[in-house]
Design a protein that fits this description.
Helices cover 24% and strands 26% of the residues. Helix 2 links the parallel strand 4 and strand 5. The protein has one domain: Aminopeptidase (3-Layer(aba) Sandwich). It has four helices and seven strands, in the order βαβββαβαβαβ. Bound molecules: coenzyme A (COA). Coenzyme A binds next to strand 4, helix 2 and helix 3.
Length: 179
């Protein structure tokens, strides 16, 4: 499916219906619960901003194909990554970030590069609308273990510490001045 032809991506709207979204795997059920029970309220009240991929052609018409959520965050990179410029930024325990807090594609529409388009869109939102105006050096996510390889393909790096590698949802990041 082609972004811009078969589907578009935009901010969640109060009129969007989330009820038909399917996750398939029970492990991804919390993502569906978030979308259907909290996303609208959190979006309206600036707790978490959700973006949706909406089908515009064929079987996908008017379907919510996928979504992601962004929140303000921070990352403790000590022991796992070194900022090379400016090096004295490394003395801080935490550095500013935006977190890709939720990401899912409807199970019937996986494998069509919608997940990739959503990650690319989230990166563009942060690079174009946050980085020039608010100190923010990283895009971060707490990756579900089965999605670590997906995020690596999308350009994320696993924070290289022993503690992080053992986490159920290890921290992964993109250095926004290196992408
Ligand atoms: C992970 C997820 C978002 C991927 O969405 P998708 O639309 O199916 O992925 P895409 O079609 O854009 O895949 C892009 C690339 O990633 C690869 N990929 C997709 N899912 C992958 C996975 N779980 N592990 C490794 N690679 C994966 C694809 O093979 C493709 O690789 P290629 O560039 O070599 O062809 C989707 O499977 C999903 O919603 N999973 C359940 C929820 C979840 O795990 N969310 C993320 C963690 S919070």
């Amino acid at each position: 499916m082609i972004f811009g032809e078969d589907y578009s991506i935009r901010l969640l709207d109060p009129s969007d219906s989330t009820s038909g979204f399917k996750t398939g795997d029970p492990a991804a059920q919390p993502l569906k619960s978030f979308l259907q029970n909290q996303a609208q309220e959190f979006h309206q009240h600036s707790i978490a901003k959700t973006y949706v991929a909406l089908g515009e052609a064929g079987d996908a018409t008017d379907k919510l194909l996928g979504f992601f959520t962004l929140i303000a965050s921070e990352i403790d990179i000590r022991g796992g990554y070194v900022v090379d410029d400016p090096t004295h930024a490394n003395r801080y325990a935490s550095l500013p970030a935006v977190k890709l807090a939720r990401l899912a594609v409807d199970s019937r529409f996986r494998g069509f590069r919608i997940g990739e388009a959503l990650v690319d869109y989230s990166l563009a939102v942060v690079v174009e609308n946050v980085v020039p105006y608010v100190g923010c050096r990283f895009l971060v996510t707490d990756a579900k273990q089965p999605a670590v390889a997906f995020y690596e393909k999308m350009g994320f790096t696993l924070l290289d510490t022993e503690d992080n590698r053992k986490r159920e949802n290890p921290v992964m990041f993109i250095d926004l001045l290196k992408c």
